[in-house]
Each structure stands twice: as C-alpha cells, then as structure tokens.
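NAD(P)H-dependent oxidoreductase
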Amino acid sequence: MTRRIVLVSAGLSTPSSTRLLADRLSAAASAALRDRGEQVEIETVELREHAHDLADHLLTGFPNASLSPVLDSVALADAVIAVTPIFAASYSGLFKTFVDVLDREALTGTPVLVAATGGTARHSLALEHAMRPLFAHLHAVVVPTAVFAAPEDWGATDSSSTLEDRIERAAGELADVVAHRPRATRTDAFDDVADFTALIAQQH
C-alpha cells in the first residue's frame, strides 16, 4: 500500500528557502515512513505555478483544468506537508488563497505537518497563532511539532535543537500518524447521481 504525501510549497522565488525546507521535510517524512514499512509517493505542488489559476478560481468559483487535479490530489492525500513564507506575521497571501479555494471537507482527518520560513526567528510564532488554527479550522490532524527556519538556522550545528532535529522530529510524528491510519479515500459527490437517460427510458 503506497502512502501519498502532497507537499504544498508557497515560496515565491526560484530557488526559495521555502521550497528547500519543503524538500527536506518531504525527504525526512519519506524516510520515516519507509522505516515503518510503508511505501511512499510524494507529489509536490508549487503554488507560484498556479497563482493565475487560483485567482481565476476566486473570480469564477470553479477550478480550471490546471488547478482541478491539484485540489483533487490534496483531497486524496494520506498526508499534507504545508510550507509558507511568513509575511506581516502570518502566512502568505498566495498560501491563504490556496486554502480559500479548497473544499471545506478536503482536509478533514488528514494528517498535516505545518512549516514556514522567515527573515527572523521572531516570525516563528506565526506557526502557532496562524498556521495551526487555520488547519484546525479545516479539521485536519496537525502534528505537534511545527518547523520554522530563519536564515541563521541553515547549517547551524551549535544549538540544542537544530533545524535538522526539528525536521526529523516533525517527520517522525507525521509518519507515526500516517502509518496507523487506513489509506485515504474520498468519494465523488456525483458518484451516486442517477443515470437520467435510464430514468427517462423507464418512463416510456
């Protein structure tokens, strides 16, 4: 049974520290799940590539052909790793737009690891006062450890809790939750819609 993890990165530049953190988290989560006897498939969603699609969705109320499979992937994921840069003490507007267009039930019961990058360690509090409540509102299962990376965290080794330590701990928590849950399944709301052609035929 393959576990599907969707990695959502809201970095705006290429390359970006947000994507770098996202990749390190997904690699650690994959390794942790394999250690628990699970096969893993990672799908990466770069939100910057869908910025126009997201704006179109807000204006029309419907996802276009490019965005629709992305939203479906999130809804069908066994786990989500969500990483955003912190702007003005909260998640980015691009990240919030993506959350705004998700179906309200898409993440119900889904294990989620939240992470962020920022220009100063003071922004780390945004994970607790903004990111965690956002996913709690969506009824996701947010793992206890959230991971924040400030510029000084990259390559740091003289701290009692380095960035790599936090990544490994959060990835292990996510793997523990995923490994003990049944594989994610979602049903299409239109699966049970009657065949109208057959109904009409029955009237004649």
